[in-house]
Amino acid sequence: LDDPDLKDIDPAVLKHCHAAAATCILEAGKQKADLSAISTCLEDCKLDKERIEQFCTEYQKNKDALEILLGSIGRSPLHITDVSWRLEYQIKTNQLHKTYQPSYLVTLNVENSDSGSHPDVSFSCTMEQLQDLVGKLKDAAKSLERATQM
Predict the structure, then answer these.
(1) Cα 131 from chain centroid (whole Å)
(2) What stretch of H or E contains 120?
(3) Are 13 and 53 in contact (CB under 8 A)?
């Protein structure tokens, strides 16, 4: 949006154009589309030959990197296999103020069925945040239990 050539274009239209271009690129990468298929699709969208050639040239330059990126994403969500936690107690801040704030360091061990294990997910939270997380997990478990009984 900071580009001076784009200042006269409605930001909503720019956002839609960006989303359309990103979708086109991702779908072409997913389908491993060749340049003739991409050109045909863009011609159907009424793009002129010059823009189609420019798009195809840029796509071809970045095709390998796009396929590697898409391959690293995977197809299924992460699965939590284990959780560990520890209590952390902060006594002073770096400004030497006494704080006495307990917090929990939580580590989720996760794996993806597509590619095996992933790096663990770690976060820090207060007692209230941890209680809120546990409550939401219990609600989700109850909802799942009700859904399977129907």
Answers:
(1) 26
(2) none
(3) no
